[in-house]
Every structure is written in C-alpha cells, then in structure tokens.
What we know:
The chain has one helix spanning 13-16, and strands at 19-24, 27-35, 40-55, 59-68, 95-100, 103-108, 114-123, 127-140, 146-159, 164-173, 176-178, 184-189, 194-199, 204-212, 215-219. By secondary structure, it is mainly beta. The chain has one domain (13-219). It has a 15-stranded mixed sheet that branches. The chain is globular.
Amino acid sequence: MKKIILASTLVSLSAIGFMSIAMDNEGAALSATLPYKNQMIALDVGVGDVLLVASDDDQIKMSVTLEPSNNTHTNNKHNCDSHSHATIPMNKRKIQTSVEHGLIKIALNDQSHVTQNWLIHMPKDADIDLHLGVGNTQLNGLQGEVSIEIGVGSAKAYVSDANYQKMKVETGVGKVAFQLPAGQLNRDSHLVGEELVWKGKGQSKMDIEVGVGDIDISTL
C-alpha cells in the first residue's frame, strides 16, 4: 500500500467551485468539483459507501449525501484538517480538500455520527488511495493505480485486464471472487480469508485489503 504523509494546504472554496446544500437537521447533500492535474486522489471515509466512476473529463466531480448515525469515527487517515474534536452540526459539515505535491486529499470536516454515500467521477487514468472504515466501495472502469483499505465491508472492481500489471487483493475474513480472463494467478486460501496475486501485461497496479468482507474483481 502507498503510505503518503504530507503537510496540507487548504484549497479555497471559491477555487474549486464548492457547493453545499443543507437539507435539514437530519441530513445534508454536498458537492464539489476539483481540477485534475495528474495528482493522486486520497479519500478518507469513516462509515458509508463509495462509488468511483471513470470519466474522460479533466476534473474530479464529487457528491456525497449524509445521514445521521451512531458511529463515532473522527479520525481522518489523510488528516485534511482535524484540529477540533467537537461534533460539528450536520448543516455545517463540508467537503474539505487540500492539494500539495501531487496529492489531493478529500474528507469531511467531521466524520462522527454520520453515514456518507459518495459518488465520484474521476479521470480514468487517475490514481486513487481510499481508506474506508466501515462500508462498501465499487470501482467502474478505472485504469490508474488503485490502493484501497477497508476495515469492514466489501470491494468490487470492474476493470480491463489490459490496463493492469499486478493486482494483489486480500481479505482477512471473507472471500475473493476473481474473474479476469488472462494473466498469471496465484491464490492462497486460509481458514477464514484469502489472498490473491494476479500478474498481467498492463502498466498499473491494484492493491485491495479488506479486514472483514468480500472482494470481487470482474471485467467491464
């Protein structure tokens, strides 16, 4: 997995065309658009679902709906700006981003007591580093480097085998379904989980780890 720790510089809201729509005290819907200049995208989500969709744009277009929950997740893996430990009211939640040295970091300014449902359209060759505490993610058509860590949940990836040089997927407790047609495949199953390494003829690498849950890799 790629481990990148950088000091963050906050991007002004006006620079990214940020828009926030407060629904009511019971939830919120947020959206933002970022320019893409070959940076890695680092997304941190405490509890929720993430859908990543490849596009031909040179922008990152994201939206997230928020629903109140009982989770107490507060720590941002990529630490956009987590100075305060006080819970922020739902109508004050926002998508917080920072950009520096080839890395775009994205997270809510407060992840406690909320379930997040993200939809992100991103350039198809962009690299993604996703950290998800509890929930599910699905990738559609991405071609760049993929690094995913999930505590409890599931991961699905619909990709072309022609784009990837190596895939390593592992679940501590769960199953791996792998349906790419070509390449060299090594599978190691143990009592409650599986690890799989696949080698192909592409350029990119994919690394997915799920603590508890299943992984499904399929062709487009």
